[in-house]
Amino acid sequence: MAAFGRNNKPEHHGSTTSLTSLSRLRLSTLGRITSQRHVGSNPLGGLECDYSPRFFFKLVREGDTIIIASSAEVDRQNWIQALYRATGQTHKPTLPGASNVSAIISDQKKSTVDIETGQNKTIDRFASIPIHTLDHLEYFIILQSSSLDYRLTDPFVSLGCLSPTQRYLLDEYCTRYGIRECQRHLAMLINLLNKIENGMSIDPDLIHISYSLCANHVSGKA
């Protein structure tokens, strides 16, 4: 923090310490320096130093003015709260335009709540749909394709082979919603072939397994 008092005393060099009593001090003004280039026109009265304070507040007492500045808004707020407790001042000045900022923040919070509410309503509506009316094969294809895409983020390790957790998840989905094994492997075969066309490295054994199961189903062997 930096404190500046308006007086006519001569300038002294060296390290000095000044103590000011808080008796009858009142917080009058809050402010912020928006530019550091034109320091001479800022409310600190021509301060030029490497400290570069940006946030300040004024204390008045019987015509005297003390300006306290800091480089962080948090430091200023801490000082203001401490002064409120020490002096018992009830009037709390606000920054110019603070009401507009509060209104903008309020509108942003309201829009965020509306978006979250809309998402929750969509999820609730989706969850309330009877299970037998949904096309679970379509959802399974999306789930399987997304699992394969995630696994292929490291193609040289997976080569298209799903992790044990992913296979367990797909097994549970097929069991719960009646996805047939042939449908599952046909979707997997299509996904793997598409990945190969896009230049991904895929284990040929995976394609052979899915193709064999689909061929056995068509020929009546499975």
From TrEMBL:
**Keyword flag Calcium:** yes
Report the protein name in the record.
Answer: PH domain-containing protein
Q: Where is this region: Disordered?
A: 1-20
Keywords noted in UniProt: Calcium, Exocytosis
**GO CC, one annotated term:** presynapse
Annotated PH domain residues = 1-88
Organism of this sequence = Schistosoma curassoni
- Which PROSITE patterns does this chain map to? PH_DOMAIN
GO terms, biological process: dense core granule exocytosis; synaptic vesicle exocytosis
- InterPro entries noted in UniProt: CAPS (IPR033227), PH-like_dom_sf (IPR011993), PH_domain (IPR001849)
